[in-house]
Amino acid sequence: MSRPSAVNTKASVPFLDATIFQSLPLAEKRQITHNTLRLKFDLPTKTQRLGLPIGQHITFRAKDTEGKDVFRPYTPVSDDLQLGSVEFVIKLYPAGKMSQVLSKLEVGQVMEMKGPRGRFTYEPNSKQHLGMLAGGSGITPMYQVLMGLLRDPQDRTHISLVFGNITEEDILIREELDALAAAHPTRFRLHYVLNTPPTQGWSGGSGFISTDIIKAQLPAPGPGTLVLQCGPMPMMKVMTEHLTTLNYTEEMIFQF
After folding, report:
1. What does the DSSP 8-state code read for residue 97?
2. What is the pLDDT of residues 27-54, one digit of tens each?
3. CA-CA 20 to 30 A from 221: which of 16, 131, 152, 253?
4. Backbone dihedral region of 118: left (phi > 0), alpha (psi from -120 to 50 degrees) or beta?
5. Which stretch of DSSP H or E encloses residue 175?
6. How far is CA 109 from each of CA 41, 50, 58, 199, 211, rounded to the nearest angstrom?
C-alpha cells in the first residue's frame, strides 16, 4: 500500500521523527462501529515508545488509486507511555481518499507516518481548568490530552468534557472515557449529548450542544480557563459562536 522507509530501531529513542516519513506495519484491524476502525500498528521494537507530546498529532501518507500522495492528520488513542505499538480510532468517510486506503489496508501492510505535528503545547498547571467540546471522531485529540494530564499526579488542572454525537452507538472510546471519569472524579467531569438519545435510560444531554449546556458544564470564561474544541467544521463554527456569546475570548479558545 505504501513504500517502506528506514526506521530508527534504537529502543531508547522514540519512534517519531518530524523530518521524515517512516513506515509502520498494521498489526490489528477491528471494526468498532459501522463506519469506524480501530487500528494498531507495531513500532520497530517492543520496548520503543512513539514519542508524541500532549496535544500533537501524526500525519499519515499513502497512495490513492491514481498513485497520488494522500495526507491526513490523526491523533492516537494509545498512551505515549505504551511500548511497542500505537493505536488509532479512525472514522471512515465514503468520499475520503485516506478512508478508502485505510478500509483496504490489510494486516502486515504498512502506513507511512510523520510527526509530531501541531500547534498545541501544554505546560502542567498553566491553566486552572480546561473545557473540551468534541463531536464524533474529534474526541481523539481530547482523549490524548486527557490521558497526558490525568496521569500526572503533580498536575492539578481540572477538565470538563462535553462530547456530542448523533446516537448512543456513535460514542467512540466510551469505555475509556468512562474509566477516566471514574478514576478521577475530582478532576475530570464528563457529559454526553446526543442528537437522538434513547427513549429510556439516558441521563446525558439531548439535542445539540447549546449555550445553556456549555454554561452548565464548562468552566466560566477567565484567565485560568482554556476551551479546546474538535469536530466537524459546521459544529465547530457553531461552538465558536456559542463561546463568543458567553464572553470567551479568542485567547480562551483553541481548535484542533
Report:
1. H
2. 999 999 889 999 999 999 999 999 999 9
3. 152
4. left
5. helix 174-183
6. 10, 19, 18, 43, 46
Residue with cell 467531569: 189
Q: Pick the catalytic residue from 158, 230, 242, 248.
A: 230
Locate 251 and state its grid cell.
485567547
Q: Is 74 a catalytic residue?
A: yes
Question: Using only C-alpha atoms, what is the Rg of the chain?
Answer: 19
Q: Which of 95, 97, 75 is nearest to 86 (CA)?
A: 75
- pLDDT value of position 116: 96
167 part of the active site: no
- Catalytic residue at 230? yes
Strand partners, 254: 228
Q: Cell triple for residue 43?
A: 513500532
Q: Are β-strands 225-230 and 205-206 bridged in parallel, bridged antiparallel, or unpaired?
A: unpaired
Q: What secondary structure letter does DSSP report for 12?
A: T
Instruction: With beta carbons less than 8 A apart as the criterion, state whether 193 and 164 touch.
Output: yes
Distance CA 225, CA 222 (A): 5
Instruction: Write the pLDDT tens digit of every residue in 214-239.
Output: 999 999 999 999 999 999 999 999 99
Tell me whether residue 196 is one of the annotated catalytic residues.
no
